[in-house]
Structures are given as C-alpha cells and as structure tokens.
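Incident review: delayed structure delivery

Summary: a single-chain prediction request sat in the queue longer than the usual turnaround. Root cause was a stuck worker, restarted by the on-call engineer. No data loss occurred. The affected request and its eventual output are reproduced below so the record is complete for anyone auditing the incident later.

Affected input:
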Amino acid sequence: MRSCWLSLGIFALLTVRLSAQTTAFPVSNMASQGLMIESLYQQYPKAITEQNEDVAVFAGSEDVCYTAYVKFITEFALYLKDQRFRWGRATKCYNQIFFSVDGQVDYFIYEFPKGSISLEKQAEYQRLLNLFLHSFCFKVTGNQSFSLNGHITFKDL
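Output delivered after worker restart:
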C-alpha cells in the first residue's frame, strides 16, 4: 500500500476508497462518495496549468505529461472497443482525473451532457471504466499527487 500516507485524515480517505471499490463515478455521485471538488484539488494539484505554471506538478515537462494523458485516453478508447462498447455517435464527456504519486488513478469523475447517452449506457461506461482503471497505471509519475481534467469526444473506433 502507499506507505507515505501518514495522517489519520488521509488514512480515512484511503479506507473510504477501498470500501467503496469505485474509482470512477459521475459528478452527481460525488456527495454520496463523501467528496468535494475543492478539497480534491487541494490534495491533487493540477499537473498542467496555463496560468501560474510554477505551481503545476509537471512544470517544465508539460509535453511529457500531455503525451501520457493522450495515450491513457487512447488506451481506454481501445479497451471500450475491445469490450464491444458502442457509442453510436460522437459523445462528449468532461472528466477530472486524480492520480496518486505512483500514477494510480484514485478518482475519475466524469460528466456527460444531460440526455446525451442513456442511463444504461452510462452504467456500462462506468463499469468498464472501473475495470480498466484497476489494471491501469499512468505512465508518468510526479513528485506529488496530481490531477488532470478536460473534455473528450468519444466515438466508435
């Protein structure tokens, strides 16, 4: 496990994470997971930022981080294809991904525009995303936990 987690507060966060066994969930489920976005961004500073670049975890190596992010999303899209997941049309999704120091995904919070996909398709997306995340590790690690966010447009491959 992560030996660097020393404080009781972080231990409690780890306990909640393990007991929930859910890494990925929609924004609407944050409260039920006991999470607030502001506190997550305090724990997981932005990996890349256009403003105040000195505070970005990957300041000076943004290209390396961005390339790893694109590879991450591409691998996930290919995984969805391998699992026979079909979008049916181009589908937008906003995501906020929170990584531990070692590149594991602690939280993947996403949001589809209202009415853009069915509840059944959202449930299957969440199931497959969680399966993918349990075996995935981000190819770049930082000197601290970090976050990445952005819009993705998924389409059938």
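Verification: The first strand starts at residue 24 and ends at 26.
Action items: add queue-age alerting; document worker restart procedure.
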